Amino acid sequence: MTLPINATAPDFEAETTEGHISFHKWLGDSWGLLFSHPKDFTPVCTTELGAVARLKPEFDKRGVKTIGLSVDPIDRHSLWAKDIQETQGVAPNFPMIGDVDLKVSKLYGMLPADASGDVSARTANDNATVRNVFIIGPDKKIKLVLVYPMSTGRNFQEILRVIDSLQLGAKHRVSTPADWKQGEDVILGGAITDDEAKKLYPDGWKAPRPYLRIVPQPK
Length: 219
Description:
Blueprint: E1 13-16, E2 19-22, H1 23-27, E3 31-37, H2 43-54, H3 56-61, E4 64-70, H4 74-88, E5 96-98, H5 103-107, E6 132-136, E7 142-147, H6 156-172, E8 174-175, E9 186-188, H7 194-200, E10 206-209, E11 212-215
Parallel strand pairs: 3-4, 4-5
Antiparallel strand pairs: 1-2, 3-6, 6-7, 8-9, 9-11, 10-11
Helix pairs in contact: 2-4
């Protein structure tokens, strides 16, 4: 079963394309994006890894460390990176975990605990459920989980939008409405009383319903 929101992201040690890591130590005080892949040299994942590499400045700007995972050894990741460079115009510029013992995939609920076998003999379909996105906060809590089928490429612009919303909420205790974008109005969190809201927003707010209090996005 996939880990729920607000669960502590399990810590682990793993070999990556950038060396051995201890996950929590590697994250430090940063936000984290862990996204997984069922197999190297798969077409949709090839485009996704290129997309994240191109967006690295955007993740860096938000203080988000990115890390990929694929159920293959890291020497194959390095070969795959050459294909990604040639077909997507940019190679992965973040670590890729080699989950050859399926440990991380199981730890994060992406594969059943009894999954086994030589990874070289496992097909992408065997690992089809290893297609998750986890956004992890500086407190090491899971803030978002997305699960995608193999046939659908992930929308990393949406993932950036979610990160913006999460970070805004963590700083200002606000929520964002449907289809919100940077600079648009937000919603006061339910835990903020009207008396507290008057101090935070002396100019007031719009309230089409008592429970729906709309204010400009905090700076």
